[in-house]
Design a protein that fits this description.
Helix content is 2%, strand content 49%. The chain contains one helix and 28 strands. The chain has one helix at residues 305-311; strands spanning 13-15, 25-29, 38-42, 48-53, 56-61, 65-71, 80-81, 87-93, 99-105, 109-112, 127-132, 138-145, 149-156, 160-163, 172-177, 183-190, 195-202, 217-223, 230-235, 240-246, 250-253, 264-270, 275-282, 287-294, 303-304, 320-328, 334-341, 347-353. The strands form seven sheets. The chain has a five-stranded antiparallel beta sheet with strand order 1-2-28-27-26, covered by helices on one side. The chain has a four-stranded antiparallel beta sheet with strand order 3-4-5-6, with no helix packed on it. β24 (287-294) and β25 (303-304) form a beta hairpin. The protein is globular.
Length: 355
């Protein structure tokens, strides 16, 4: 899912636990270049990361660090990676000089996907790729269509770009697809009401399922490998809160870490064992912090990720604030996100191993 963070410094710090202690680690990732924002996506095993730094696209592994994949769209934070880590999607400049949904593999490099037959460019863009299935053979995203409406699409090499529809005069987006390719999640926008709805498309469906209830505004941002667990943000009359959904349990609102109803929270990722990560707090006042929540204990409240990591043995400087968790690997082992230092005012990204 696809969330941006401020970034101004390239600092690398690896801290691990001593022998006999628990196994959590915390590492700040060195930025390959100074930029004002970044977005990330992570493979199923947590060993490969796709990153967009201010419009420059990268692939990261612990062994090789960052590999520059070339320029992307400096006005879009979209970035996605397949579960096996071999394929990346985003938005990049095509042969026509406009930004196109695109797919990258080590064997082929970048391939531009073009645009639908009724496509219209908006601010120099045809749209972007947002999510990939397990091996990168299926891709979802948003394409701009006439007249300037964003439309969810699904792409395969055989069928090309296939529309998934949009509301009348409103936008839709396919934000990500489950690794097994059975479930797509995103939003469906109602312009007259002025809000989005969290939706899912199941395999073979032509219309989205408004799974969160007719009156709940919000969007879905991440889905488990089997498509059965969905997270995102939903709004009530007070504020927007992270949610966790299964067909059996329905929508569970996760609230906020502070329990202050005027604060917000936003879920960015979910693992296959039901661990949810994101941010919680006041975006405009007291700031936000990364949270973690476990569906095995649905009545428990979300925790600050920094506290959870430190309890598990990770060493994190006291002056560091983990401001958001951007994604969690499907196996639940690894989280990526952003941090800042209250003393030096440095900031950047991190990767943390929970187990």
């Amino acid at each position: 899912m696809k969330t941006c963070l401020a970034a101004t410094i390239a600092l690398c710090l690896l801290v691990s636990v001593s022998a006999g202690a628990q196994s959590a680690t915390f590492q700040t990732l060195p930025f390959p270049q100074g930029e004002t924002w970044a977005s990330f996506s992570i493979s199923a095993d947590g060993k490969t990361v796709a990153a967009d730094f201010g419009g420059e696209l990268f692939r990261w592994t612990e062994a090789d660090g960052y590999t520059d994949l070339g320029p992307g769209d400096q006005f879009s934070t979209t970035i996605g990676i397949s579960a096996d880590g071999t394929t990346i999607t985003g938005s990049r400049q095509g042969a026509d000089g406009l930004m196109n949904p695109a797919i990258w593999k080590q064997s082929t490099g970048w391939v531009d996907l073009g645009h639908p037959f009724n496509g219209c460019s908006v601010d120099g863009s045809w749209g972007g790729g947002w999510g990939l299935n397990a091996d990168g053979t299926e891709l979802v995203g948003l394409a701009w269509t006439c007249p300037a409406v964003g439309e969810a699409f699904r792409w395969t090499e055989k069928r090309g770009m296939v529309s998934m529809g949009h509301p009348t005069h409103g936008n839709s987006r396919a934000t990500t697809i489950s690794a097994n390719g059975q479930t797509i999640v995103g939003f469906w926008e109602y312009p007259r009401q002025g809000w989005r709805r969290a939706v899912r498309w199941t395999k073979g469906s032509t219309k989205p399922d408004l799974f969160t209830g007719a009156l709940i505004a919000g969007e879905a941002t991440a889905v488990s490998t089997d498509g059965k667990q969905i997270v995102g943000q939903s709004w009530d009359d007070v504020s927007g809160y992270a949610f966790y959904f299964t067909d059996a349990a329905g929508v569970i609102s996760l609230g906020t870490v502070s329990h202050n109803p005027s604060d917000q929270s936003f879920a960015n990722g979910v693992s296959d064992n039901g661990v949810v990560v994101g941010w919680s707090g006041d975006q405009f006042g007291g700031g936000i912090k990364a949270f973690i929540w476990n569906s095995k204990y649905p009545r428990s409240h979300m925790q600050y990720l920094k506290e959870k990591l430190k309890l598990a043995g990770a060493v994190i400087p006291n002056s560091y604030v983990l401001s958001t968790a951007l994604a969690i690997s499907a196996d639940g082992s690894t989280v990526v996100g952003s941090w800042y230092d209250t003393k030096s005012f440095d900031q950047g990204s991190f990767i943390a191993h929970l187990q």
